[in-house]
Design brief:
Blueprint lengths: L9 H30 L20 E8 L2 H7 L5 H18 L7 H5 L6 E7 L23 E7 L3 H9 L8 E7 L2 E7 L7 E5 L3 E5 L2 H13 L9 H4 L10 E6 H8 L9 H7 L2 E11 L2 E10 L26 E5 L2 H12 L9 H12 L3 H5 L7 E7 L12 E8 L3 H17 L4 E7 L2 E7 L5 E8 L3 E7 L18 H6 L9 E6 H7 L9 H6 L1 E12 L2 E10 L5
Antiparallel strand pairs: 1-2, 1-8, 2-3, 3-7, 4-5, 5-6, 6-7, 8-9, 9-10, 10-20, 11-12, 11-18, 12-13, 13-17, 14-15, 15-16, 16-17, 18-19, 19-20
Length: about 575
């Protein structure tokens, strides 16, 4: 495949049900935490911002800047499987055809000789209809009731760019016409229904192409009146935090505006209280770069400067990878579970798109354990925590009900309170579920096993050094964390290669060995085309930190397989 171009018996039932309930409770914690970690959160120096940020209107839902360096696109095609390569190629071809090929242009011949290092594509929010500048008859669809697109092409060779603009390609069933708006010439297509392409030159620095003549006017207004993306609250302060040298791509998402559009989807309506909460957030931006072993994303999210909500600058994580063994398949860590829960409640309550609602989790814990989630458990879980999947070691000649264990670790700030809660749990498992509560020792450390009525070791809990409590559900893996393993996940070469070392200090990390995990366990579907994407990925790592009381930084790395081009 060529590289892409821009031109182109009853007991058993009870046993299974209980196993599912215990495993499900742990999984809900993991999914909910992951979702939060991923989703929470003078003179402008335009060279540090998204290309065209001073032209794109401030209400843009989404903007992405793509490199024009064909070498980088060829390098990208060295990664992944044939399926992922085909998806990348198809996306680029669709973009090319929409703005170039359908109008007789070829990127290499007509655009590349004069265009700058990056081009930016933005999707704008629908706008209430407004009067259109004359002549109205030249516009097929004067109303701007749907999303529209803007492409900004920076100019490095003015003479060649002007030639393309002043001498447009001849169209068979349509024609180019000229008009002016605020003293700026606009060329637009007249004739064929559905063809509303328009183009304009701004100060000889940018060629702006839109799919709607009114959108061209919106871009001119944004540029002249300084109401562009560059002036939106927090953008100019936060985007430079993740800008990079010659990136493959950069992107920006306007969270409250995008949420409003999502709220109109028939099957995914967001309640008013959720939309109100999302107004506290402002933007999510990132820079994508290619490296030898994969793809790196440096991201930042920030709150609306006018919101009352602030973030706690508390980056006290980063040690849990030293407590789990090197063969750990997945680990999600954070700095303060109680605070994380509070933030999750704030942003997800009443949201039908949340993986699990706070009330569902509260009810589930109460039903399963009789304990109050916040009063009896989270009240002492104020330290670093981790949820991990650790594979078991099968013993020859024995059957094993579980191939891995879900291991939860949390640093207790009030150990006496923690021990009282754990004792309550033991009583519940003994009296309500008829489990044997067996006290024993592992590596000279006291632990408690919960043994089901069927004789299977279902769970173990105890204490690690540093007032860290642990609960392991599934395969027996306690001997892998007690004593502290000599070969830890932190020393695993794949972990070291995958999980970013910055930002440091950190408030959370995520790691998954995709290859080994998908070989042994089915993963819940969270994304479209998920299986195709996972098939091209070896591992994923993320490190996050709260930068200040209004912004959070993320570094994510995908180690990718290399396939046939």
């Amino acid at each position: 495949m060529t590289s892409p171009r821009l031109s182109t018996p009853k007991k058993k039932q009870k046993k299974s049900s209980l196993r599912l309930t215990l495993s499900g409770a742990g999984l809900l914690i993991g999914i909910g935490s992951t979702a939060y970690l991923f989703l929470s959160q003078g003179q402008l120096f335009y060279r540090d911002l998204l290309t065209g940020a001073n032209i794109i209107p401030s209400d843009a839902l989404f903007a992405v800047s793509l490199t024009t360096d064909t070498k980088q696109w060829k390098k990208l095609q060295e990664f992944g499987t044939k399926e992922t390569q085909a998806q990348v190629n198809q996306s680029l071809v669709q973009l090319r055809d929409r703005f170039l090929t359908n109008y007789g242009y070829n990127f290499e011949q007509d655009i590349q000789p004069w265009v700058g290092d990056e081009v930016t594509l933005a999707i704008l929010a629908p706008q209430v209809n407004k009067p259109v500048s004359k002549p109205v008859s030249t516009i097929d669809n004067p109303g701007d009731s749907s999303q529209s697109m803007v492409m900004v092409l920076p100019v490095k060779n003015l003479q060649k760019a002007q030639t393309v603009f002043t001498q447009p390609k001849t169209l068979i069933q349509s024609k180019w016409i000229d008009r002016t708006y605020q003293g700026i010439n606009i060329k637009q297509i007249e004739g064929q229904p559905g063809e509303n392409l328009a183009a304009t030159f701004l100060d000889g620095k940018f060629l702006v192409i839109t799919d709607n003549p009114q959108t061209a006017e919106r871009a001119i207004d944004a540029y002249k009146n300084k109401t562009s993306l560059a002036t939106i609250g927090g953008f100019a302060d936060n985007f430079p935090k993740i800008s990079g040298y010659q990136p493959l791509a950069q992107f920006y998402i306007n969270i409250p505006n995008a949420a409003k559009i999502a709220a109109t989807a028939p099957n995914r309506r967001l309640p008013a209280q959720v939309l109100a909460q999302l107004q506290n957030n402002q933007g999510l931006a990132g820079t994508v770069t290619l490296e030898t072993e994969g793809l790196r994303i440096k991201g930042v999210s920030w709150l609306n400067p006018g919101s009352q909500r602030v973030l706690a600058v508390e980056n006290e994580a980063g040690t849990m990878q030293n407590r789990v063994p090197a063969e750990t398949l997945m680990m999600l860590s954070g700095g303060n579970l109680q605070r994380l829960w509070g933030e999750y409640v704030l942003t997800s309550q009443g949201n039908p798109l949340s993986p699990v609602t706070p009330e569902q989790l509260r009810t589930g814990v109460k039903s399963l354990t009789t304990l109050d989630l916040e009063r009896d458990l989270l009240s002492w879980m104020k330290g670093e925590f981790a949820v991990s999947i650790i594979p078991g070691t099968p013993k020859p000649g024995t059957s094993q009900d579980f191939r891995a264990a879900l291991v939860f670790m949390v640093q207790a700030k009030e150990r006496q309170l923690a021990e009282a809660s754990i004792k309550q749990l033991d009583d519940v498992m003994k009296n309500q579920y008829q489990f044997q509560i067996q006290s024993t020792k592992v590596a000279n450390k006291p632990v408690v096993n919960w043994i089901s009525p069927f004789g299977t070791l279902t769970a173990t809990h105890g204490w690690l050094d540093g007032n860290v409590a642990f609960l392991s559900i599934g395969a027996p893996v306690t001997d892998k964390i007690l004593p502290q393993p000599s070969t830890t996940l932190a020393k695993n070469s794949t972990f070291q290669q995958t999980v970013p070392t910055e930002p440091n200090p950190t408030n959370g990390q995520f790691y998954i060995d995709v290859e080994q995990t998908t070989k042994n366990f089915p993963l819940p579907r969270l994304l479209p085309q998920q299986q195709t994407l996972l098939a091209a990925t070896r591992s994923i790592g993320m490190t996050s930190a709260v930068s200040d009381n209004r912004s959070t930084r993320y570094d994510i790395f995908f180690t990718l397989k290399k396939g046939d081009r």
